[in-house]
Amino acid sequence: MSEYRQHAAPADARQRRNAKPIICYSVDQLPSYDHQFYQRARSQLTKVDEVIVPPRDAASFSVPAGHFFRITSIEGSQVGDLNLFNVHNLQEHFYSGKTRQLHASHLTVGDRLWSNLPSLRAIATITQDTLDWYGWDQDGAGVHDVIGTRCDPYTNQLLKQTDYHYCCHSNLTRALAEHLNVATSEIEPLIHDVLNVFMCTGFSKDTHQYFMKASPVRPGDYLEFFAEIDLLGVLSACPGGNCGSSHSDDNTPCFPLKVEIFKTTDENLARWSNSEISKYSGSHGL
Ligand SMILES: [Zn+2]
Q1: Ligand 1 centroid distance, CA of 271 (Å)
Q2: How far is the CA of 240 from the centre of ligand 1 (A)?
Q3: Rounded mean pLDDT of the chain?
């Protein structure tokens, strides 16, 4: 914290601070995003399933590889916390930290959702985003972030000394446990950092603290994905609602979210194949 700073800047502080920023990972080296392929595939969609996520709760959904899924705001401005798993191996799931490093702090069309180590592969690709007009606002905020984690009852207890049971972490845990018909204690460690769908966030300019502000999402807005592998998704309609005031409580109006699953034609998928796991040998030098 800056109030505890004790050291005067050295004589060459300015020179040290002027080192040139280098982008850590070159996105050009990633498997290329074939915009034409995804746009053609999404132009011929047939809806095969629909799930409504109740407010302050979560629901699961399955998306076969090669299908699309769309998360839509209905009834009111609402933020969603998304977990994605390999349906055949739940140990492989979305890795928000590496996704942030490979793409950016906030995601949009053309960005991939990557899975954790040792698989590290694209498990989904964002194919449409009706909030892509938002960009970066005057506060430095954007939408659909991978910098926050998910609201959880432990942090809430730490800060407020109260138990609240409908944080996204708990909602995701209950929904996954119910889907798999197992105890919540067994499944809770699999719940991971989320993609904050529709959430508008950034870091404050003065203290670089994580902040949220009312989401620009309105009913009808959606974020759409293409499943690069067979996916199990779990989505929580955050108790923070549009995240314009508070979260981890019952104070904010909350609304449901709609998840739709779409199939494209076999012809469109002819030139597409399942995403493959990392080719690293796994020896770690031994
Ligand atoms: Zn939440």
Answers
A1: 38
A2: 6
A3: 95
